[in-house]
Amino acid sequence: MSTLGSLFVREMRLAIRVGGGAWMGVLFFLCVIVVVPFGIGPDLNLLSRIGPAILWIGALLASLLGLDRLFQADRDDGSLDLLLMGDTPLELVVLTKCLAHWAASGLPLVISAPVFSLFLNMDPLATAALTATLVAGTPALTLIGGIGAALTVSLRRGGLLLAILVLPLTIPVLIFGVSAANAALDYSLPFATPFAILCALTLISAVVGPFAAAAALRFSSD
Amino acid sequence: MALIDLANPTRFLRLTDRLLPWLVGATVVTMVAGLYLSLYASPEDYQQGATVRIMYIHVPFAWLAMFAYTVMALASLGTLVWKHPLSDVSAKAAAPIGAAFTFLCLVTGSLWGKPMWGTWWVWDARLTSVLVLFIMYLGIIALWRTIEDPIRAGKAVAVLTLVGYLNVPIIKFSVDWWNTLHQPASIMRMDGPSMPPSMLVPLLVMALAFTFLFMTLHFMTMRSEILRRRIRTMRQREASGAAGVATATTGARPGPAHSDTKPAEAHS
Amino acid sequence: MAMTRKQRRLSMIGGAGAVLAVAAGLILYALKDEIVFFQSPSDVAEHTVPHGQRIRLGGLVKDGSIDRQGETVRFVVTDGAADLSATYTGILPDLFREGQGVVAEGTVGNDGIFHADTVLAKHDENYMPKEVVEALKARGEWQMGADNPAAKGAPAADKTSQAETPSAPASRTN
Asked: Quick check: is C161 in a domain?
């Protein structure tokens, strides 16, 4: 499938070279992390207790950020029509685009999370658990977000609506991501159980997301 | 062409015109009977006292909230798979009613929870999943309003509705899968309802009344949606002459004669 | 690509099915361990929760254990296997009574007593007219959670706490 390979490379190139690239998302992530201690006060014990939750919410909001342009940019320059008419199944095209989007914007969030966890007074074990949950969980956020991006592709200002449509669907990912990360803080909680469900949610959204997004894209064009 | 295309909704309008007075009557009769039975004639619970009476409206609201979403999911399949012309009208009409029922379910549950549990709200699986249902209803309504073309909006909303349907089994089984504060099912359970007939009968009468209420509101909203689309079509035709006709129909295609009774069956 | 459109479509659906099967397997693996809204007194006893750590404690209020001293209430939470003394100051929900399911939030103090700052009463799924229960009690036939047909499965917390206890060792190994 060299078609999908070259599509992946194209998406990565566009993501890195256009508009500040991946660093915009990381910067936004940092802003969310910085704002929280001002909101709740600089109590380090409290911060280390709710640190995984703050980082997860920050990652969730940051990964929603660039999603509205996922298909809109292609629609604007006409390449979406080529992808729609092409020989490659649209579901795989959507999956590839989502994976490229994750690699360009989600992966930097995962990499920067351990650094940001220092601000929140988290110990190394909690940071490791959190990073593992982010690696497993953030692809699901992008894949679910892909549905929202496809639904709002024809709208001029779809960014806010996209967030409203996508956020309720991401709640299970957030619940199990945070509860797995919290297991490292409180050893009476199991880690493997919520982590297994988190992985399952990512796999399910890897199937449901591309099929739903491809359907939405087809309907928006005819 | 346009007149033929509208033939199917017209038949629906004629059918509901005859049906609606009966439905309104059935709603009023069952609602009066249900309110009398549940608020006056039914006994007080041995643990909850008179607060148990909130249950007689809370539970029907919850059932109908999920029922309305199921109607929307079936209508979405109708839009995407069978391309039935009335199904997107049905889906659009059910959304605000379902949202209202979900909201009232949350409010009545909260009013019951404060004296019984000791809290207005708790983040357990059942309450959270119903709140997610409410937000999803609002998101669906927002998507309907944002996309101007009704056909395109119908298809986009149908995709979203079907993806969101994953939440409905989670709501139903959340009390069995997780240790929730919310109690497990009392009526729809394998070994029969854990409720004596003196309380079960009022609840079932209320559930029937709410189902009639939903059907009445749903058909009325569908009728006004059909009429709204006709007005839209006429305005567009007026504005753009003959050129507007091809794109501005309600999406109705002449189908087999029996197909126009389908929505009525699906919603009863 | 030598594959025809139909073959490609079929292999895509097959791949999707395989991914979903793996996801289902992961969920089945996870379901062997319950995810709990609260921990039972046995869990607290086994894990020796550090003092000052906030937990949610769930179980039944032990019969004859409620001791009211003004605003402060002392009671014992039990799951049949283990007991934990608890204390709470404030207004209790209507359903709080002996033998009733309860979920309390708070910390275990140095004295080994659970200091609750929130107490929620858990209602079970059973409904029963007041008069019937009083009549049964008058005839001496009313027994909570025993062979009374109306009280089958009651109180619900009893069932859940029993189901939880065997899963506790599994959660420790993870």
From this structure: yes
